[in-house]
Here is the input.
Amino acid sequence: MTGAPDTSYDNILEIKNLQTSFFTKDLEVKAVDGVSFSIPKGKVLGVVGESGSGKSITSLSILRLIEEPGKVKGGEILFKGENLLDKSEAQMRKIRGNEISMIFQEPMTSLNPTFTVGQQIGESFRIHQGLSKKEAKKKSVDMLKLVGIPSPEKRVDQYPFELSGGMRQRVMIAIALACNPDLLIADEPTTALDVTIQAQILDLMKELQEKLDMGILLITHDLGVVAETCDYVAVMYCGKVVEFTDKKTLFTEPKHPYTVGLMESIPQYDQDIEGDLAVIKGSVPSPADMPKGCRFAPRCPFATDLCRNKLPDLETDEDGNQIRCWIYSDEWDGDPEVNVYERSESTS
Amino acid sequence: MSDQKVLLKVNDLKQYFPIKGGIFGRTINHVKAVDDVSFEIFEGETLSIVGESGCGKSTTGRAILRLDEPTAGEVEFDNTNILELNKKEMNKFRKDMQIIFQDPYASINPRHTVRQILTEAMEIQNAVPKKERNDRVKELMDTVGLGPHQADRYPHEFSGGQRQRIGIARALSVNPRLIIADEAVSALDVSIQAQVINLLKKLQREFKLTYLFISHDLGVVRHISDRIIVMYLGKVVEIADKNSLFTNNMHPYTKALLSAIPSTDVEKEKERIMLKGDVPSPIDPPEGCRFHTRCPFATDLCRTKVPELRNTEGMKDGHRAACHHMEAIRSGEHQPQVNA
Here is the structure.
């Protein structure tokens, strides 16, 4: 931390052209390949994508938690205007759990089974705020109260195995929020939970986000969760952002054929669908054999020679929405009247 | 639907798992995973069981196939009570009833090629003469959308969606009549999930299969089912045809479950019934209605008397729910209890 803190930033987090790769003996797997997005102060950004799209690696890169054989190769991660990639390990330790916190998917494996809940929440207070054991415990009880755990004085001395899945995730949230972070990274925070418990946890996160005015990076594969919690959404495919918009635009006028395909392939509990579900044909390409043009071209019903040979850029329109697709560019060589909501074929 | 033939009938099925404890390792208590569950499946239909973890939906599926021996009850397949059969007789019936598991990575032997996986069942059941088995493998692979040239590959050479197709091909290899799909698409990415759901529907049309589809995903269930059972803590709380369940549901738990699902409809403000607390332990389930500890409408009656599954005015034939107050809740006479 050098110099006076910079307060001129608008975005709590700004990622520019982030590149994270994993190296094997003769192969470089570009898990995150030039990802850029930003989160305005106090807003929730959702990152959606299927397995292998690079969404989790993006979040681990932000906290610099990528381990060998992986490496953040390039780009910038500006947190409050300062590049996290320039920080020393000691400086990062002061930021992790203090200014940026993270919640993981599996509450059972991310809590330490041999420490009580109170010890694990209190750790943050003791390390980042230098509190004594007694003070830390008192504040831990307050945190448990904040996340809505009944009889917190009793729970604070219990071990993780004594709590249910929903309770454990509340404890994870309590740990993450202990030091009032400015940014919370939540990696599939409700995926392992039942829907009625998921509803409780999402409600809690939203309520605390407003109360504490923090930014949230929410990583999920569930579009329903995105619709209910996020302000902005980035859709990722094969290590790249293919579409970035505000939530309403994404759900009412999705532009990228992948986003459209994704939405149409999910059966909704509140809609009847006649006949077969729309599908995205094929499967995600292997990282060892990435298409050289648009990553989605082999599965895209609208792909042309241009798409197969040249990678489109992420273009920003006048509303600030971003899209990575040739259809919306001047160079488009396919049907000029193409309608991404009309599928030309369906394969099962 | 009522004029159709009943293929499988489950009567008062109970599955209690003993808990051993104490110095002599005696049984000290039971997990009442499934408690008095009854339903029937008609030939050619898809019946789904939904519910949250621990409600007993998977245990029900496994008990029907006797993968875990049920504690009590009857399972009639084609008018034979299969729980009374000995192992040899039961094996004959296994040809007619197959299961697809959730995890395509764990449910297929990694040391066998696809050909071995598919012929193993044919061999055990003697369903296909030896000479025709290779042709049958080709045909099966083609049916589930895999290339016949992939028959000699090992499971690790396939993606998750493809492996689930192998699991489906294995289930089909003995020409079953009933397939139990236990969270068969839950582990798959959404774009692959849609492919497998379409495949299951296609196979049902082609081979007149009957499905018992166990899932926690109500979106998938709405798309694939004819009728739906909602379970909570080992009990059936509501059973109905698909339309009634989604548009005329009666049980407070069904309502809460549906309202808890995040919707992608960003323009509609949705009213959410927030359930407090967690599902109670099935070792010592609550007296009376098992849902009363979380139900906003619960009264003293609910805390003492077990509600029966019943049909009432305004419900379609075959639609039944287990709630003491469902009429009064619908008319608005019975409001959420303040200190419940």
Remarks:
- Residues 144 and 150 of chain A are 8 Å apart (CA to CA).
- Chain A is about 30% helix and 20% strand.
- The radius of gyration of chain A is 22 Å.
- Confidence is low (pLDDT under 50) at residues 1-5, 344-348 of chain A.
